[in-house]
């Protein structure tokens, strides 16, 4: 069942990518980066469909990097690319949905970032440069970020020569927005707060958190750096919306307590899933005007 859901989401993400490229970015001579940008540029120069260039670029890259990426990732990437190619072929003759620069950057970046993020979140990829970057890192020890930055600088420079400086400037904005949306899709809803509490009143704080806030906490063994005496440190994970309440509860018991809080982008297990459900409910409450 989980695999079926993953492939449904891969389909949705790939379709969104095709819509962003064929209905918004390509007709207006804007690109984002990677092989999708090269495909748009190639289509503009030679008058051939985008899907053909994407196939010619991503196909060989997938073959080269399949071993480095792993069988599961390779199959999901191949499937995502197939859906994206079919979507591009189907949408080729449709007109652009807008010619407004602001709307192109905004909705092109949002759709493309959302599509790529959904595909990556479910174990695939639609852009060959990321695959190539992983392969180059394993084969030649080139940092992934350095490889991607170098490739995209060259691609966006080529876009400036082909489409003009103004289009390239808009393309940089699209690239930035796509990156941010991908980050949000991959990490935004998973973010929780890990908290460490250091206090001389550890037991009353623990009882208040467990009994009043219904939290599950862990007691870590520590040693005072100045006194050398053993002490407990309270550790727990909480959703971002409840952190202020936790802080107030702790300081009610001990105003001098020290709290160290950090954003966590990945958590797993039963409690982590429960926290993600809480976060999703809070977002829904805010969207409905209740939060």
TrEMBL record:
Main location: membrane
GO annotation, cellular component aspect: plasma membrane
CDD domains: YitT_C
Subcellular compartments: Cell membrane
Residue ranges constituting the DUF2179 domain according to the UniProt record: 217-265
Residues passing through the membrane, by range: 7-26, 46-66, 73-91, 103-120, 140-162
Keyword tags: Cell membrane, Membrane, Transmembrane, Transmembrane helix
Highest taxon, organism lineage: Bacteria
Membrane topology of the entry: Multi-pass membrane protein
Keyword Protein biosynthesis among record annotations: no
Secretion signal, residue range per the UniProt entry: none
Gene3D superfamilies: 3.30.70.120
Keyword match Cell membrane: yes
Name recorded for this polypeptide: YitT family protein
């Amino acid at each position: 069942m989980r695999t079926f859901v993953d492939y449904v989401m891969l389909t949705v993400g790939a379709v969104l990518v095709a819509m962003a490229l064929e209905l918004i970015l390509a007709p207006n001579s804007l690109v984002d980066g990677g092989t999708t940008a090269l495909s748009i540029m190639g289509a503009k120069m030679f008058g051939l469909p985008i899907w053909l260039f994407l196939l010619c670029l991503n196909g060989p890259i997938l073959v080269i990097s399949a071993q480095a990426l792993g069988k599961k990732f390779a199959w999901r990437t191949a499937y995502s690319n197939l859906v994206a190619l079919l979507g591009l072929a189907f949408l080729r003759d449709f007109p652009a949905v807008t010619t407004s620069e602001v709307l192109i950057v905004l909705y092109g970046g949002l759709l493309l970032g959302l599509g790529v993020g959904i595909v990556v979140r479910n174990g695939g990829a639609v852009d060959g440069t990321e695959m190539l970057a992983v392969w180059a890192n394993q084969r030649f020890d080139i940092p992934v970020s350095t490889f991607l930055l170098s490739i995209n600088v060259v691609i966006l420079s080529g876009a400036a020569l082909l489409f003009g400086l103004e289009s390239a400037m808009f393309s940089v904005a699209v690239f930035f927005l796509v990156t941010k949306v991908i980050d949000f899709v991959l990490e935004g809803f998973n973010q929780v707060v890990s908290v460490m509490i250091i206090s001389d009143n550890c037991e009353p704080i623990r009882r208040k958190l467990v009994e009043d806030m219904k939290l599950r906490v862990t007691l870590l063994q520590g040693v005072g750096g100045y006194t050398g005496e053993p002490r407990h440190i309270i550790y727990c994970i909480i959703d971002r919306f409840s952190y202020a309440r936790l802080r107030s509860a702790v300081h009610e018991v001990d105003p001098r307590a020290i709290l160290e809080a950090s954003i966590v982008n990945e958590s797993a297990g039963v409690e982590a899933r429960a926290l993600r459900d809480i976060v999703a409910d809070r977002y829904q409450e805010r969207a409905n005007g209740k939060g």
